[in-house]
Amino acid sequence: MAKRLFIVVFSCLLIASCSQRFAIPFLDTLILWKVESYVDLEPSQKDTVKQEIDNFLYHLATHDTAPLLEEIAHTRTAHSQNNIDREWMLQQSQRIELRLRHIRVVIFPTLNRILPTLSDEQVEALIASLQEELDEEKGEWQERGEQENIIERSDRFEEAAEKFIGPLTRSQQRIVRRLMATSPNFEEQWFRYQQDWIDAFESALIVRHSEDFSSQLEVLVTNPESLQPESLQALVDQSRAQGIATSMDIRTEMTERQTSFFNRQLTKWEEQLHHFVEVYGE
Fold it and tell me: Is the pLDDT of residue 22 over 70?
């Protein structure tokens, strides 16, 4: 239940962006319930993690759902009044990014308490799991080749768009394919960035019992972009701008059925967020 409801909240955070996949490396690492899938915890550690999860969800319910509900209402009004343009979408994307940064800041103290309690064996298991996930994703990317990766990125963009407006028309699909054929391919640099993050995370965990740990962890959790080279950040920004432009092109061709689907989705997300508050905000 907790995981499902948090996914609802997080999905709402991504309401305006199809490029947020490149916003945070290892987001799941920062989500507390993933700890147990990475590491065999002792009973006392499980109790601590459960309590931390409850505290985290309470904070989300009492501090982060209201801004999301406002964002949904803002989106509905702008859509109905036909006031959505590229600048509007860019501003919303920036607001969402700030909200994501806020969540990372909220999670940091919890991780700062939990991670030092891990044994050497648990740390090794955690790093090994992260490395395995990265190696698997990178291996699949290498096996697909350039053309298949373009198709895979197109499919991923379409799936994201369809969560908001339902199945795309053939014309809209061509718009997406045109984007992917011209957008910068920076996944190799992105994988290198993720590897740098793992290496820095491992180095921090080695000194998890020292005074330096907290400051090292804080950078990795709250400001991982500091590990990005400027060239990668420029490509990410370019991709985000192209994604917004493509979303606008898709929007101009929305059918009545897609508009109805979009409005129903907004209502559904509102209901789910209200339910989240009822369950975890009291």
Answer: no
